[in-house]
Give the backbone structure.
Amino acid sequence: MIDPESFRVRSDGFRLDRIDPAGNGGIDKEEAKARVAERNARLEVLQELLWADGRHRVLLVLQAMDTGGKDSTIRRVFDGVDPSGVKVAGFKRPTETELAHDYLWRVHPHVPADGEIVIFNRSHYEDVLVVRVHGLVPEERWRRRYHHIREFERMLADEGTTIVKVFLHISEDEQRERLQARVDDPAKRWKFAAGDLAERTRWNEYQAAFEEAIQETSTDWAPWYVVPANRKWYRDLVVLELLVQTLERLELRYPPAADGIEDGFVVE
Amino acid sequence: MIDPESFRVRSDGFRLDRIDPAGNGGIDKEEAKARVAERNARLEVLQELLWADGRHRVLLVLQAMDTGGKDSTIRRVFDGVDPSGVKVAGFKRPTETELAHDYLWRVHPHVPADGEIVIFNRSHYEDVLVVRVHGLVPEERWRRRYHHIREFERMLADEGTTIVKVFLHISEDEQRERLQARVDDPAKRWKFAAGDLAERTRWNEYQAAFEEAIQETSTDWAPWYVVPANRKWYRDLVVLELLVQTLERLELRYPPAADGIEDGFVVE
């Protein structure tokens, strides 16, 4: 079926525009949806096992252009998964207090504990993306951050966190349609911000910023995966396959039963 | 007078046992005390200026053997300094929640904001000191932390934090006397823990751990200073000179007056 590793960013010559946002891996929608249901059930089991095992931490970083589908990916991929062991941390415009500290300061408190899955909806990568595109700090300053971020993630990984980073890749046309849908649908209109259109004029600058950030920070210990995301059902499937494969590799196991319980009976 | 830079750890061949814990730099107690009062007054002014300026962050890391004088150094050096802009963060035995995360997780939230001085009373260095001496994690794991710590401090420095790290260096005899004083003095007895004596038997192991940690992590952006600390008045003076010099170098300035205030008059 789908090999999630084929979406991994490996080489120095990474080019975002060589990846088709409309890709579907030769799978049709019905087939994908059936597989999504099956993989989602598996994720549910694996998450409980991760929690019971209690020796690993999993961090999923989600980034995308506006309307790229971060919120709906989280909702659909983790549908039915026990929210006790899964936390979502969203990072919007930083507060004044956050800006008075280094840019990793607001992120670090939210990294996963033993047994947890944490999803970053946006992340420290905004500090080399929006900050770069809007010139909020000088280039020499944001450019150093690639190194900081690699090292921050290396520390997390060394200390027991499995990190998976996903860029949901949509096309410019797809973004236009999704923005139009937000305007047209009363139930989605609240998500539409006037700033969205201004950001849209910077499409190429954002693509360049993403391309470089992904290339500079896709490491052995915290790889980036670029997932074609025009088709939501294909996007969901790829992210699920990636998460399930990542958790399967951890060789999770239930801890031994407590003393006093033998062969399934409580011993008194 | 005293050049704080002479206490800075620079070379690869750093040896802790070549530094005399009883050193006094040729200064006598009276002279030192007068100078301490004068430098303390200057620190008070500089801290207010740091706060008003609002563009810099200062982190002082204090480490020492047990009874090395961390608490009393903080009390005496910062005597009279406005506590609104100075925060002390102490790091004792980690909680269960802290242990479920990477070892920098509990430290990072306490780093200084713009305009602040933060003092770490113990710090992330415990994770290459007590953790090493007691074998709490395998060697290959704590050894990697030297690199993490260098990079964590580099990130803080790149983003605007001035870092000064001080090891208060006492002798084994001095420690014995101070422990005895804790036992003898009813007002100090509460500070005496039975574990202190057990730790004392590991004196050489701790010295070796400190020596290596200091050598591995004394960098251009976060230097270590080894301060002779048998004589409290000399220790206080050296730490004060170091802090004052560090703050003077920042070229702090008061921000311009608000609009409507000209030449010292409120303009209506």
Chain B touches chain A through 27 residues (CB under 8 Å).
